Structure formats: structure tokens, C-alpha cells
Amino acid sequence: MRIEYDRDTCIGMFQCVAEWDAFERDVDAGKAVLVDAEEADEDRFVREVPEDAELDAKFAARACPVDAIAVYDDDGEQIV
Ligand code: SF4
């Protein structure tokens, strides 16, 4: 499972932080930080989701009010 985070879209509501500890607060920037992610494009961050964190990652994506987080299965199909 893979997660993508669009930092440009993020409005810093921090609901994702409450759902998965891979999301941290950057209070100064008013943006979430996706820990251990690679920047695939400008402001688009990507990382693999460990098996034991899949539920948390999906909850984080669902919690985001502006859909800044997307989750994909191993076939590249978007789940959330
Ligand atoms: S829930 Fe969405 S808008 Fe809020 S900090 Fe996380 S990514 Fe940003």
C-alpha cells in the first residue's frame, strides 16, 4: 500500500495527525509533514505504508477535509 500527500492542498487542520503517527505537525508552516516520505513532485510526497499501519493510513486519508491524502493498493488502484 502506498500513500500520497499533497502539501499544497493541505490547510493544516491536523486531523490526519490524530489518525496516523506518520503525519506530524509543522505548526509554523500550517502544514502536515509525512515522515519518511519522498517528494515525488513539487509538494507531492509519497511513501509505502507498513502492513500494520494500513488502517491508520486509511483513516488519515478519510479524515482530511480537503482530500490532500490518497491511498493506493499494490496494483496502483486508489482505495481512499
Ligand atoms: S488532515 Fe488534511 S488538511 Fe489537515 S493537516 Fe492533514 S493533510 Fe493537511
How are the secondary structure elements laid out?
Layout: E1 2-6, H1 15-19, E2 23-26, E3 31-34, E4 38-41, E5 44-48, H2 54-63, E6 69-72
Antiparallel strand pairs: 1-5, 1-6, 2-3, 4-5
The chain binds iron/sulfur cluster.
Iron/sulfur cluster (SF4) binds next to helix 1.
Question: What is shown here, in short?
Answer:
This protein has helices at 15-19, 54-63; strands spanning 2-6, 23-26, 31-34, 38-41, 44-48, 69-72. It is an alpha+beta fold. Strand 4 and strand 5 (44-48) form a beta hairpin.
CATH class: Alpha Beta
Counting helices, strands and paired strands, the structural category is alpha+beta
Mean pLDDT: 98
Q: Total strand count, please?
A: 6
How many strands, which pairing sense, and closed or not: the largest β-sheet?
4 strands, antiparallel
* Low-pLDDT residue spans: none
Supply the number of structural domains.
1
Q: Roughly what percent helix?
A: 10-25%
Report the portion of residues in β strands.
25-35%
CATH architecture: 2-Layer Sandwich
The separation of the N and C termini measures 11 Å
Heteromolecules bound:
iron/sulfur cluster
Spell the H/E element sequence: EHEEEEHE
Shape: globular
Strand order of the largest sheet: 4-5-1-6
Radius of gyration computed on alpha carbons: 11 Å
CATH topology: Alpha-Beta Plaits
Number of helices: 2
